Here is the input.
Amino acid sequence: MFDGTMMGFPLSIGHLLERGRAIFPDSEVVSRGPDKRTRSQTYEQTYARSEKLARALGRLGVRPGDRIATLSWNHAQHLECYLGIPAMGAVVHTLNIRLPPSELAYITNHAEDVAVVVDRTLLPLFEKFRSELKTVKHILVVRDDGGPIEPPFLDYDALVDAETACPRAVGFTPPEGPFAATVDENQAAMICYTSGTTGNPKGVAYSHRSTILHAMVGSMRDMMGIGCDDVVLPVVPMFHAAAWGLPYMAYLNGAKLVFPGCHLDPESLLDLMVSQRVTLAAGVPTIWNGILAKLDAEPKRWDLSSVRTMIIGGSAAPASMIEGFEKRHGLVVTHAWGMTETNPLGTLARVVQKVRVRGEEAILSARASQGIPAAFVETRHVDDSGQILPWDGAKMGELEVRGPWVTRSYVSGEGTDRFTEDGWFKTGDIVTIDAEGYVRITDRSKDVIKSGGEWISSVALENALMAHPAVLEAAVFAGQHPKWGERPIAAIVWKPGQTAPESELAAHLAERFPKYWLPDHYVVIDQIPRNSTGKFLKSKLRDQYGDVLVAK
Ligand code: ADP
Here is the structure.
């Protein structure tokens, strides 16, 4: 062995803070409050506030390794928790406000959180599980509407304001604050729990190292491509999978960050994109579906010329949506795939040169796919017997991944069956992978439809149905069938004021798929049931309509 001579300098979130203060002191962090008013602070102020938060928490007895929960929308104080808590060596634990109170209590107790930072507007939710908490000693409330905070709650902003910040030397000095190179890069920085659709939620602990590597690769030009001129709007909640790492990516590069707070309706988001001259926004398809409908209805109302791209992920972005944004509004969508277990970015649908030369159809197909793996994320897919499948774009198998920001276990060692003996993580997603490495999700393994031994892709059917002009949303799920075992059933939500005969939907699908793929039955519903992270809850549809074919 002949060792390299380079320093073992830690990849730490503290460095982000130090660098932000030294190099990008004037970069802005804009938050919109519950009253819809925006307020702005600089990176220099964010540094001071994050540092004062760390001091205040230290004064309350928080020690390195302790877990601090947040129950918050996207705003500057949440960013201060994202930065200041890991930088002091403690661990920020984001609670998903859309989970039922019993699950929130379970997760907070499981992580043994010693303190909780909670938005005042979310106190009613917090009160529903506060009495069940076993380890929480301090509750810091983000007052957001200016009114006083009463004991036993502590006023987050008052605590921060009461501390004295470390003075900054005049002119450029190398990072000298308390956060410079103080933590071990393998220490946990953040804990996120999976939404637990099967069994109890399981915790994943992102390390400083995984978070920084993820931010560096994620902001590469052919990934999210974030630089200091960008204005980044994470619509994706900071309480879910680190808002896809966007706060860290933006901070690393000195980009302006814009946080939408609790107003996530299409009109409020579009207004914010215009007023802040947003260049990159990111969120789940439901959000963008609503925005596309709004833009279609009032195409001239919003000047979105500043927007360079919209990142869509979390569930499949239908090709029709990607095309609709581009053709009707000149807006570019970038599709991405990830999981809580992958920090969370895994793949992103950038079009490589080899595909580009093949023309428009190949380009759209690549852009509608889940994409190519990020650098350092390795992908493979395996059949039922664990056999590794070829990258032929046809064979479906479960996606497995490994890499420096893929978890190697869950907190407390649960869920060992999700890891292979040779060190890969089993995603539970059924995919094809083509010769260029593009991953296409055909299903979640628990939602796959097995008809007479053949697998039918519910995601492909849904995407095709959502391309029909009358369909707002569609979910395809397995119905029990006496002869075939399972057959597809389609649940349809019409666009307002529109409808179409079933035969038209069937004909629309027949142009694209073999006959045995076509749904045996259609149900029209008002809304597709969703889980806490906005994904279709097909188990609910199966419970409700799964035996209609048997009864037929
Ligand atoms: P959960 O806690 O429900 O697992 P995650 O947010 O970690 O929540 O969800 C990850 C899952 O979301 C992936 O395994 C995949 O099924 C789905 N997903 C994420 N991004 C996409 C995408 N672009 N297209 C299709 N499915 C996606």
In short: Residues 189 and 428 are 26 Å apart (CA to CA).
